[in-house]
Amino acid sequence: MKIGLIGKPNTGKSTFFNACTLLNVNMANYPFTTIEPSTGVAYVRTSCMCKELEIEDSPVNSICIDNQRLIPIKIVDIAGLVPGASKGRGLGNKFLDDIRQADVLIHVIDLSGKTDEEGRILTNEKRDPIKDITMIETELDNWIYDIINKDWDQIGRTSTGDRKKFIDLLSNKLSGLSINQNHISNAINKTELTTKNTTEFSSEDKMKLVSELRKQSKPIVIAGNKIDLAETEDYDRMRNLDIEIIPTASEAELLLRRASENGIIQYIPGNIGFINNDNEKITKQQMKALETVNKQILEKWETTGVQLVLNFAFFSLLDMITVYPVEDENKYTNKKGNVLPDAYLLKNGSTAKDLAFKIHSEIGDKFLYAIDAKTKKIVSNDYVLKNNDIIKVVST
To answer: Which of 216, 250, 275 is the last residue of a domain?
Structure first.
């Protein structure tokens, strides 16, 4: 699963990316800072099973700090979108093409309204951030619409009103966008269409279907960035409009992450606050910056919001659960003796056999049964995994 980081230029998107990954991608106050998409590793955070079991773990594929398991995920910082991108404006379709493989999107907006639709700094006026949300969604819809519309007559004519055949043909057309048959089927079910006959779809019907298809295949969480520059009423107004928005301060998160990396403070991404280390090397400037973050961000909002956004994307929008595969169900270890070595993210509803394939395709092919390490009970291949299950897979 991969996160795509999107938004118009100059919203703090690259700073958000750096805060997640501690990679030094270029950051500057001008449009198109990001030309090529940057890929990095961020982490979702969940309470580790070591706490419940009261054992000391030794993770391999993830990190555990103070009983908090940080599980790696892929994140791509995609260059900023501008109005008309779906028609090739700006860097246009290249930007949209970079979104193809994303499973979920984080849309970083400038909550302060201090940048125009192109990402240029405003001095004497403010822009309504809701316009940026609408602009991005419209560009994505137009992009998908243009892809399917040019072959729509052929798809509709070939399927001759057969819904299953229509879904098969459309999924083949959209497979490169990581859009599958389930996405299409769900989109059709949730769209109010004037006709069920695909050959008679109007342009309005097709756009309705495309919009729902985008929601199904590329769900979006809004990161309301620059909360330190925004007025409280700006956020309250957007929240009252029923928009799922998480207030964020990516610059503050980046400062905290780097201060922690340098041993100045103790901070786990997503924590409410941080602990100052007894460090004589800290400068007055660093101390002042930390005090500013504490006063302007943490005391008011509790967290910078960055980790909340990542967790919401995976655990709420993608509906993922955490599962711990082990080879010794009694000691919760792998062959090398590592306790709770791996934490895997799987789609809610996944089975024991799905976990086996996640571990290795050969283990999936030769799957016999699994053991629930908590209860020591044998479970079959169709056992539906639960969040925080600890599972031993047995194969031939």
So the answer is: 216
